[in-house]
Amino acid sequence: MAKSTPTRLRVLKTFKLYIGGAFPRTESGRFLQEHNPKGQLVANFCRASRKDLRNSVVAARKAQPGWAGRTPFNRAQILYRMAEVLESRRESFESALAERAGIKSADAQAEVDAAIDRLVWYAGWADKFVQIMGTTNPVASPHFNITSPEPTGVVTAFAPRSAPLLGLITAIAPVIVSGNALVLVVENEHPSIAIDLAEVFHCSDLPGGVVNILTGLREELVPHAAKHMDIDAIATFDATDEERRLIALEAAESVKRVHNFESPAKHDWAQASAQSPYNILPFVEFKTAWHPIESGAAMGAKY
Amino acid sequence: MGKTANTSVRDLLFGDLWDYAPAPESRDHLTIHERYGHFIDGKFVEGEDHFPSINPATEEQLFEVASADEATVDLAVKAARKAYDKVWGKMPGSERAKYLYRIARMIQEKARALAVAESLDGGKPIKESRDVDIPLAAAHFFYYAGWADKLEYALPGASPSPIGVAGQIIPWNFPLLMAAWKIAPALAAGNTIVIKPAETTPLTAMMLAEIIQEADLPPGVVNIVNGAGQTGAAIVNHPDIDKIAFTGSTDVGKIIQRALAGSRKKLTLELGGKGANIIFDDASLDQAVEGIINGIFFNQGHVCCAGSRLLVQENIADELMHKLRHRVSTLIVGDPLDKNTDVGAINSREQLLRIQELVAAGKDEGAQIFQPSSPLPEKGFFFKPTVFTEVTPSHRIAREEIFGPVLSVLTFRTPEEAIEKANNTPYGLACGVWTDKGSRLFRVANALKCGIVWGNTYNRFDPTSPFGGYKESGFGREGGLHGLLPYLEVR
After folding, report:
1. What are B63-78's pLDDT values in tens digits?
2. Which residues of A touch B271 (CB under 8 A)?
3. CATH 3.40.605.10 fits B35-271+470-489, yes or no
4. What GO annotations for molecular function exist for this entry (chain A) (predicted)?
5. Known active-site residue B270
6. What is the distance between the alpha carbons of residues B299 and B459, in angstroms, rounded to a whole number?
7. Are the beta carbons of A277 and A136 closer than 8 angstroms?
8. A64 or A297, which is more confident
9. Catalytic residue at B118?
């Protein structure tokens, strides 16, 4: 367990789940253990169950219309606020990355830097990707015609197996920036950092339920997510062929959108190539609206 | 809803005192071969296992068409792969563009023959194939031709590149138009193609193959294989295809999505719908009636985005239904080649049976049926324009895609109820909203979960306008700038 000074016993944190803006334990009462690279125990954490997943989807579905209904400007401010709060707690994350994950101090600092900067970068897209990805369509008839992206709805993402902080931001930001609600399933070497991050979100004005975080085993939760009829899209990072097969097989029943990302190589996580407005696209739907234009001739206009 | 609409005033109906004289489009400039095979590697091949293709308006055989087996599909994929590697994938976009422009022009040159072929083979009224299907097919090639050398401007910062060999499967409701929707963006993006037309409507696709040959498109860039579901499965399951694009039923779409499980193929699906056409009490009712008619009876209702559920605000329901019944009674059902025909033949016996089954279910479940009294042709597959009232959201005719000239009418009181009912379906392709109030139109359009919203209009299509669904109506867009996305790798 984490270090104590000779005179004082350190207070340890219980790592729970993050569902609907609250931190419940897994309803299953099960736990898994996280170790540092030396093999020392650093945390017990929750092994989320099917029921936890279902509860998260309910929370996400409830939160999603309100989140999508926020103005893009407001969503941008909230993502930026998440970056602000992460910056204010950066030392805590640096020491967590160092102590629990054994990441060298300079690398830990670089990962926190990149995580904050990536949040800021995606925050800026909230009120811009609609302008880049939307179109006015010059149809060959007297109609006004526009196409605009809307969030798909409830997305479940299986987080990267590496980059315990930056990987999470890379998975979360492009999904929620457009107005989706997310259930993030984290299975990596250091899932406790995901729950620390949930605390950042919790005090960043992000409405409860927009991001839900489950720690546990992908093997257990992948089939349940793939079958769940109220999940609109699934994102994976580093999915095995078997995971891809299983998800595609079950996702078809409700025509879920499935997008499989590959994690970048270790040293490329912080690069600009690991972020893209095109990572927003798999989780939006394009809506096209038509309306007639009154005929000038019919109104007796002279032009 | 009022079954006793205003009948005190005698309606003047076209055709109740006299009939229109027949005005058939001539077919003598169209040459139909006795037999069609496939178009592979730039050559027409005889093919195997031929089966008859009939004219649904007369039930007479038009020609025979082949059914590609796995070996034939494999030849087509090999030709497409070779053309991609050696020619098309390397060709400058500006040269690809000129081939597409050529094809667009040749479709325009042959427009009349193509329109007649489309109506003969599929049963759609000549006025629709002549004024909608064929001009739009040409326009799609023309539109995407211009993208071929401008892809880097379409997707800023994305350095787009083609995907490879695309397998495409298209339906029978807009045969040439669906071929254009699939082929034009794929070629503009630099991919090569194996495409399968629907088994009941291969004629215009084979005429397009002739155009492609005359346009000197390099061999193998477009390969057309005929056949039914088994041929489609051979395309979907072929290991050397990089991307599948399917338009058709949601049931088959799900089968394809499952079939691709474990492969790395990309997929886009354009599936079924149960579109709501919502009429608010401030709408222009006469215009709305035309929109309702166009929404459900265009192409015999064989339209995935058909406005097959009419949602009428309760306080105008009686008046609107009176106008609508009157208008339905004036529709001319009959010979697809007749220039006055509004509603042509149902595409196949199989589809007619499906429509009959669902209409019977509507009656059994207690909805009230209205059909005009005019008789149907004695031969061929025809179905009367049908309007069901007193439909509840749980009725099969309110939930299942009928894909025929059958309208289900429901009512609502508030915008909230209209939105709720419109979205109460696993589908999400298209909706219509009729109101004179702009702010309400925007609000409802935003709240509808569907890919196309027609405000004060319905069933409009354009090559610049993206088309595709939410939810179980599929994913990916066809048309417009967004129609390029499924055919490009984006970094």
Report:
1. 999 999 999 999 999 9
2. 255
3. yes
4. oxidoreductase activity
5. yes
6. 10
7. no
8. A64
9. no
